[in-house]
Amino acid sequence: MTLGIMTALPVEAAAVLSVVQDVTGFADPHDQNAYQVGLLPSSDPDRPHTVAVLMMPRDGTRLAATCCTNMLRTFPNIRTVLMAGIAGGVPRPAEPDRHVRLGDIVVATEGLIDYGHVRETDTGAVLRGRQSGGTLANRLLRAAGQLRLTEEQTGRRPWEEWLDPDRHEQAGRYPRPPADTDVLRTGDQVIPHPLPPEPAPAPGMPQIHYGAIGSADVLMKSERRRDELAGQHPDLRAVEMEGSGIAASTAANERSWFMVRGVADYAATGKNDRWHRYASYTAAVYLRALLAATPPLAAPRALVSGRALPLVPEPEQQALDALLIDVPADVDLRAVWHAAVPDLPEPDREVFSTPGAVYHHLARYNARAGEPHPAFRFVDRLGRAMANSPTGRELRGWAAARAGLGHQAVDERDSPEDPATRAGKARPALVLRITVDGIDRTRCRITPFLQTTRGPWRPVPGPGEPVDVPRADLAAATAVLVGKAEEAWQDTADRADIEFVLPTALLNEAVQWYPGPEILGESKPIGIEYAVAVRSLERMRETRVHRAWGQRWRQLDRQPFTGRVFRGRGDPADLDDWATELISDDGYLVVVLSAPPGTEVGTGELRAALRAGVPIILWDQREPRPADGTQGLERLVAEPTGLLPENTRRIRIEAASDPAHFGRSVALLWDDADRPITERQADS
After folding, report:
1. Are 269 and 346 contained in the same domain?
2. Boundaries of each vWA-MoxR associated protein middle region domain copy (predicted)?
3. Which of 100, 165, 528, 605 suits 430 as a labelling partner, its CA being 20 to 30 A distant?
């Protein structure tokens, strides 16, 4: 089973089971729960979701947490627990776009609000209304967004066919009550319902609401308390009595959750059961449509399917936990995951909260024959990411000893490079393409592009429109665009990068020291808060060098890694021979310029490196380059090539408090051939 579905009432369970295929009973002698298991469609017609449906003996958050924990112990491959059933709606008749009516469907895309916690004061109890824990299932969030987009663009609502008794027989068993029974009152006064917003569903069909759902061990039957809670939480659409318990249980077991509710009453005095059956069924059919738009949540091949002994003895585990606490917060745990266990599915965001959480998540897996355990591979990779620190060396030694390899690496076949730089593994990024005006050379145009999430490289124009500014105002305009990008990234826990696509005339601009947006009264240089790199506008436009560029770039993935560094010689008379040697040996992946662009030698070496397709170029922005600059560049290129963006950021952080530090003048051209910004994209 890969999905669990929980309900609190018999009518809710019956409605869910009416849309599940191949239903059969299942019982575990060690579990007091009774389950019905079956299939629901996924976005892949050949791979349906396998689901376990549980009806709780009664409602309540505490019992929900207990039942959920038992379910996850009985079915250890369940990755997401869904809640389906009825809820009390939160009406807002003065706001038609957010007004909830009986029979409508509420989808908890904004999470849960645990309003059962109160603070006792001298004047009485005060609702704390805090956000509930747990992690929303990202796949289902994306599917809900796709259904919402389809509804708004085409008017197609796949759940409605299941509400038509002419198309599905069971719809006749869950009829919609007469419209005159949907009465909203304030006290004794009847409040008229506003017209639904466009695009509205057909008459007699439910409206879908996306927002937050309140959860507590409280049977809400008070208009005053309902409206008080609604005033505190503008996203609140409904209230119920199981969600916070299930969210807490899934969080403790490193799983995710999701919730769909049908509105059966208005959580006020005078509530009755008249709409229970229909509301239960609307939630069930929407849930079916949601899962039909969701890729199959296949169980990981290596996941332990039963109870297992600890991976290592307790004293060794305690020693590792102590080391993991010392891992710096800026280590990209997702990048380490993809380098260590690229064949395993990425877990939910909460797993990446700490190195310990990732390790213990992987400890639940089995190792393949002849390979080190995935958890050991993660620890080894984590140590590589901290190669120059004592903690990093201890982590690698711990992993090697557990894998029985003495002091060797857990897997020397793999490159230690950060997979976040590889094609298809892009982190969130803001790309600023800057061009110089063809007539007024003192003015520039900034065209922004945004990669909003980790995944395939698919930047979109924005945030905002291209802006034309004097060259002197580039820094201020950049700060505005970085602030807008942060607003777009607010729902991701990933690190983010900033890239400047620059013409050669601007490549030596100290963009890494541009100030970022003012946040809480303070602005920091962007090179401290982000991995900042520059890219070549001319090479991106010149398609005749893209083959050589891509060929060298992809050597970064070649095993074993054999890429080399080529250093400029600083002699204009030797430049032609130097360029010939560079272009004739495609093993050179990094060039260190002997002088910055803008000088005769620096520009000549730069153009030769771009022409040869060299993807990584480093230089000191000072002319002439002092001795500490030469030493600093050598220090950088002595470390693993794939870590250059993060290591460059690290030395800039060191330089922030030391004006004489060489890190203040290090420039990095990190030109990923698999992450283009095309002229068509720029023009759009």
Report:
1. no
2. 313-408
3. 605
Q: What is the pLDDT of residue 639?
A: 86
Give every CB contact of residue 459 below 8 A, 6+ residues apart in sequence. 429, 431, 449, 450, 451, 675, 677, 681
Per-residue pLDDT of 520-531, as tens digits, reads: 889 999 999 999
Q: What is the pLDDT of residues 565-578, one digit of tens each?
A: 999 999 889 999 99
The DSSP result for 46-72, as a single string, is TSPEEEEEEE-SS--HHHHHHHHHHHH
* Among 140, 84, 105, 94, residue whose Cα is nearest residue 211: 105
- From the CB of residue 493, how many other CB atoms can be counted at a distance below 10 Å? 12
Which domain, by its residues, includes 373? 314-401
How many domains does the structure of the chain reveal?
Answer: 3
Work out whether the CA dihedral 361, 366, 371, 372 comes out positive or negative.
positive
Exposure string over 452-483, b if 16+ CB within 10 A, otherwise e: bbbeeeebeebbeeebebebeebbebbbebbe
Does a structural domain hold residue 305? no
Radius of gyration of the chain (CA): 29
Shared domain check, 517 and 622: yes
Choose among 328, 334, 325, 675: nearest CA to 494: 334
CA distances from 406 to 313, 367, 399, 409, 671 (A): 18, 19, 9, 9, 38
- Structure-token pair, residue 274: 């008249």
Query: In the block, which residue shows the tokens 């905002």?
Result: 464
Regarding whether 222 and 183 lie in a shared domain, the answer is: yes
Can you read off the two tokens belonging to residue 409?
Answer: 């690496």
Q: What is the pTM of this model?
A: 0.47
The residue among 398, 411, 334 whose CA lies nearest residue 368 is 411
The Cα 620–Cα 625 span in angstroms is 6
Q: Do residues 289 and 352 both lie within one domain?
A: no
**Tokens 């009847």 — which residue?**
190
pLDDT digits (tens, 9 = 90+) for 502-523: 999 999 999 999 999 998 889 9
- Spell out the residues 6+ positions from residue 148 whose beta carbon is closer than 8 angstroms to its own: 208, 210
Helix and strand numbers (H, E) in the chain are: 20, 26
Tell whether the model's pLDDT for residue 646 goes beyond 60.
Answer: yes
User: Is there a single domain that holds both residue 49 and residue 134?
Assistant: yes
Distance in angstroms (rounded) separating the CA atoms of residues 47 and 295: 9
Residue 682: name the closest of 365, 440, 459 by CA: 459
Co-location of 289 and 318 in the same domain: no
Q: Which long-range contacts (CB under 8 A, 24 or more apart) does 151-154 make?
A: 151/199, 151/208, 152/199
355 in helix, strand or coil? helix
Q: Which domain-ending residue is among 381, 401, 421?
A: 401
Residue listed under structure tokens 């095309």: 678
Neighbours of 58 (CB within 10 A): 9
Which contacts qualify for 117-120: CB closer than 8 Å, 24 or more apart? 117/216
Pairing type for strands 118-121 and 124-127 reads antiparallel
Q: Is residue 434 part of a domain?
A: no
Number of residues that this document lists for the chain: 684
The answer to the question of residue 436 being in a domain is: no
- List the beta bridge partners of residue 126: 119
Residue 351 DSSP code: G
Task: Name residues whose C-beta falls within 8 Å of residue 121's C-beta, 6 or more positions apart in sequence.
Answer: none
Instruction: Classify 12 as helix, strand or coil.
Output: helix
- Give percent of the chain above pLDDT 70: 90
Report DSSP letters for 130-163, one per residue: EEP-S-B-HHHHHHHHHHHHHHHHH---GGGGGG
Q: How far apart are CA 543 and CA 244, in angstroms?
A: 55
Supply the CATH number for residue 109's domain.
Answer: 3.40.50.1580
Asked, for residue 487, whether it belongs to a domain, the answer is yes
